[in-house]
Amino acid sequence: MQQQSHSIIFAAVFFSVFLLLAPARALMTSDGDMVQLESYDNALALVERESFGEAVAQLTSILREHPRHANAWNLLGYSQRHLGNFDAAEKAYANALSITPGHLGALNYSGQMYIQTGRIDEARVALEQLKVACDGACEEYRQLERAIRDGVVGKY
Questions:
Q1: At what angle do helices 38-48 and 70-82 cross, to 10 degrees?
Q2: What was the pLDDT predicted at 28?
Q3: Are the C-beta atoms of 111 and 130 separated by less than 8 Å?
Q4: Which of 2, 27, 81, 95 allows an S-S link to 73, with CB 3.0 to 4.6 Å?
């Protein structure tokens, strides 16, 4: 009877944890990578062609269906920032970071946005967060560090 009780408790705890984590990992593979969507790849191609308005429309559509896709939020922020829509960009970066707190792209790009909008102290906070996320050994950290030092936002 005690063995059966332990099995039931274990199953209940496991199922409860699974339910709590499932929505947060809805678009994550078992090793923690984001699931690639063809529509996301299309949006990325639009961004690479600097068709930011079209990218915003595509990404907005993706996020209606997949609201926990951190990379799509990050790319939406990037696109909005390049269109000069800084409030929308900031919200998109915040969403990416709420899903993936150490998202390197969102930390870098939000830092770049802070420089663009004259908020250097907030850019420095993003730089410190990047330092923690990648031990200061990633390209995103170097890009933001250089932008803060030079006072010039990169093309990214």
A1: 20
A2: 52
A3: yes
A4: 95
